[in-house]
Amino acid sequence: MPTAPHRPIALRAAEAPPRARATGYPPDLARRVEGREKRPLGDLSGLRNFGVNLTRLAPGAASALRHAHATQDEFVYVLEGTPTLVTDAGEAPLGPGMCAGFPAGTGEAHHPVDRTARDVVYLEIGDRSPGDRVTYPDDDLRAEMGADGRWRYSRKDGTPL
Asked: Where's the Cupin type-2 domain (predicted)?
């Protein structure tokens, strides 16, 4: 009988190893998320239906390019710092204990940005719906999740990266 891969029963979130892989964004766009560090708590816990990341933004960093998911819900809960949430409706300051949710398929593009001199720390939670598509209204980029769970990026005209 095969044994299950070793995974911790519990862990200190801040001590979990950061995600090693790059964003998948092309270099001209990846610079905007420099200073972002994600610790994939859901992966470390063996979760398959949804992901949980402990995310730290250094001053000046964005969580991602401003984006909207077709089939994935997203939720953020701020633990430390005061990020600015940028959405189609405008900008809103967030602080510890505040949260925001982004239902799938609304087209509401969003991203938290750290415009302060201190780090921002928050939890981000999202489902892992197969076949999700992401639009980036401010950038020449789009993404689609493959059957293998990996994101495929291309320019808006379909040119692969």
From this structure: 54-125
